[in-house]
Amino acid sequence: MAIQVTRTYVASIRNQQQVKSDLDSLGFAASKLWNIARWTCDRIWSETGTIPEDGPLKAYLKTHERYADLNSQSSQRVIEELAEAFKGWYAKRRNGDDRANPPKYRKHNGDHPRSTVTFKEDGFKHDSKNNRIRLSKGRNLKEHWSDFILCEIEAESPGNETAGIDLGIKNLAAVSYSTGDHELYPGNALKTDERYFAKEIAKCNSSRSNKALWLRRKRSERRSHYLHAVTRHIVEECVERGVGTIAVGNLEGIREDDETGEVRNWGDRGNEGLHRWAFDRFTNLLTYKAKAEGIAVVVVSERDTSKTCSCCGQKRDANRVERGLYVCRGCNAVMNADSNGAENIRCRLDQAEKVTLSPRSSEDRSSGRVARPVVNLFRRGEHDPSCGQGTFAEQASICEP
Ligand SMILES: [Zn+2]
Asked: What InterPro entries does the entry give (predicted)?
């Protein structure tokens, strides 16, 4: 299975004294280039009445002397940032924000505040063996042709632990950690909401009435709020356990509970739109929040993950899900069915990445925490579903009834 992982490293520079002035001159050069591009925009605006996009602006400034103070990819990025700032300004104006200002010059009392410099593949070399990063200077700032800035870094490497997430309806998320912990995020908060709003919207005279529009907006705010809260909580738990990679099972259409035939996945018939939406939104929020902590998120296939026993690894026809419990006839394991799925999803990652984990006996898995995951209950104003605030209360659970 080919899984590509993009990982964010946060590192600090150890030889600051040696590289300080070099880095400072790059930040200074970026501010100067920004100002030149900003001034060019003003000039083109007064001549043509339009502000150029980043493409023409880059082409135009490419031959400017200051462009070669930085590596060309770094210079390009400065101009892209300016174009993005202009776009942000237009958008605000379009939305009626008259007080929004166009991007400013980077000058302060004759001084230039330093700008952020971005290095892409051409200007950046990571020597992971020696913990060094090589940063390119522009042609103008080089003392000789092979001149570069050599930073010694100390990377906060993400942990080696892994987590697997199974998304569903009964439990919005079941999380299984390589540390042996298991957690559940019941889906009832979302379900109660859906029912409440569907009922209220049905009561409205017209689906386009103000009341109906307000209810819809409120519903979507609350969905978002809930997904934010769950993903934030999961990432915090991952940080605490030293997780470096999270696997999320990808939806592959409708999945039915073997026993009851009840649809238990987000690909539910009548409401497929919402469920697909919730899955995508969940995955996006999780990825974004995890990235900030240097944790990678990968989506893996969830095929057969609900049918396979995570303890003995076998898929038997005799194995079944009874009242939310996965029962293995082979090794006699009894586990929460969603936790079993999450553990199988996590294992896909281990297989693919060959992450070595401290060995754990199957006895550990079946007798302990898989069977009794921690349930994170989302509590908010029970009597007033329109109250959007909520917090998680951890609850050591018995098996889901
Ligand atoms: Zn088994």
From this structure: Cas12f1-like_TNB (IPR010095), RNA-guided_DNA_endo/Transpos (IPR051399), Transposase (IPR001959)
